[in-house]
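Hi support team,

I've been running sequence recovery on a batch of backbones for a student project. Most finish fine, but this one hangs at about 90% for roughly twenty minutes before it completes. I'm not sure whether the input is malformed or the queue is just slow. I've pasted the structure tokens below so you can try to reproduce it. Let me know if you need the job ID as well.

Thanks,
M.K.
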């Protein structure tokens, strides 16, 4: 996550945690950062190697907004 996340560049000191499955469906990444980053959670819902990944991303602060990210 740290090598490709846009949030890492904006707030390198943010708090982050990992949980759930070690990889693939059920793997969870959570973050809490400064005012620009806010707080959120991502969970892998589906992983079809090497063609597709579906992620649920929940923004918690400064606003709540659940969303799903699908591949093109």
């Amino acid at each position: 996550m740290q090598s490709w996340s846009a949030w890492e560049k904006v707030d390198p000191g943010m708090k982050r945690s990992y949980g759930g499955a070690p990889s693939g469906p059920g793997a969870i990444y959570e973050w809490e950062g400064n005012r620009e980053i806010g707080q959120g959670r991502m969970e892998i819902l589906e992983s079809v190697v090497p063609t597709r990944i579906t992620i649920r991303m929940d923004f918690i602060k400064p606003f709540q907004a659940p969303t799903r990210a699908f591949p093109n």
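--
Follow-up from support: It reproduced on our side and the slowdown came from queue contention, not your input. The radius of gyration is 12 Å. No action needed from you.
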